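In response to reviewer comment 3 from the previous cycle, which asked for concrete evidence that the modeling workflow produces usable outputs, we include below a single protein chain processed end to end. The sequence was submitted unchanged, and the resulting structure tokens are shown without manual editing.
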Amino acid sequence: MNRYLLLYALVLTGLVLLLWPRQRAEIRRLTQNQSALASQVGHYRTRLDEEAASAQVLRLRAAEFEELRAADAERIRQMGIRIRRLEAASKSVTATRLELHAPLRETVRVALRDTLVVRDTVRLFRWRDAWVTVEGMLRDDSVACRVESVDTLRQVVHRIPRRFLFIRWGTKALRQEIVSSNPHTRIVYTEQVRIER
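The workflow returned the following structure tokens.
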């Protein structure tokens, strides 16, 4: 009887020692996910005076991604990509806000309506920089405007190591840094989901 208890205790201890590192890694992943969900997007300016945002990365398994981000998973499937082959999915939302002053110039436009020549005075404006183009036309009763905005988002995911005094080890968290090249753009929201195996 004592032999069976001893064998049972040894097998149980072996299983605990075998499964403990996996369980510890899972606990660490879930703790980082809670931290990522509770944190907000940090906004800052780079040395080149570009708008940038920083957000902590959410680490999900493929099944968790399909359950918690069902709309994103469906959109990825529609692109012809299987969720189990997915490495990471990110989403960023930007808003471009621009206040401008452009000079008006008057132009006479001649049009033919019902065999009558009609002269119409139209006021035009145009403003442009390297990122935004605004063109418009003012009439007596209406306004027509066209706005084009070009932006490049650069996304980088990096790890933040744990620290003890001057020693750096392991991974404390994953962070996503996003930089916008358009100075008129503000990054409103960003999210990075890393799919774990």
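The chain has a mean pLDDT of 80. We consider this sufficient to address the reviewer's concern, and the full set will be provided in the supplementary archive.
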